[in-house]
Amino acid sequence: MTERVFNVLFLCTGNSARSIFAESLLTHLGGDRFRAFSAGSHPKGEVHPMALELLKEYDFPHEGFRSKNWREFEAEGAPEMDFVITVCDNAAGETCPVWPGQPMTVHWGIEDPAQVEGPGQKLAFYKAMSHLRRRIELFVSLPTSGLARLELEQRVRKIGKEEGATQMAKDAQ
Description:
The chain is of the alpha/beta class. 36% of the residues lie in helices and 13% in strands. The chain has six helices and four strands; from the N terminus they run βαβαβαβααα.
């Protein structure tokens, strides 16, 4: 008997760094149990070069990513999501589309590394990637098939409160 594959959509406003990190990390760490996607409410149109540089440096998938609108995932023929995870406070505060299939929606807010300029930028990107990696590791270790939906959702929400969480993520129910 094969285990179910879960579709996970990571959302951010610009879909240029944090959501791309999450998509890459889950693709790498989730094995064949998860299919990862990312999108933005107001996509920048390109992935931030520092995000791609770090993914490559740490040997995570780094090719083929593009900054895309979340509307692609509500269109006919789009994969039905099991989880929709916002990774930035702005996207969490926006009115999201109605996702087919009633996926679990949670917030894992991480500070935006693209807001940091100058010599501290690479460190900010590294921290964001590191915080997301920890969340993804916890997420993939959950016994997804052995938990009731409510308990699974509570555990996924708790992951969003890990070190590096924004205040909004810490306060989320």
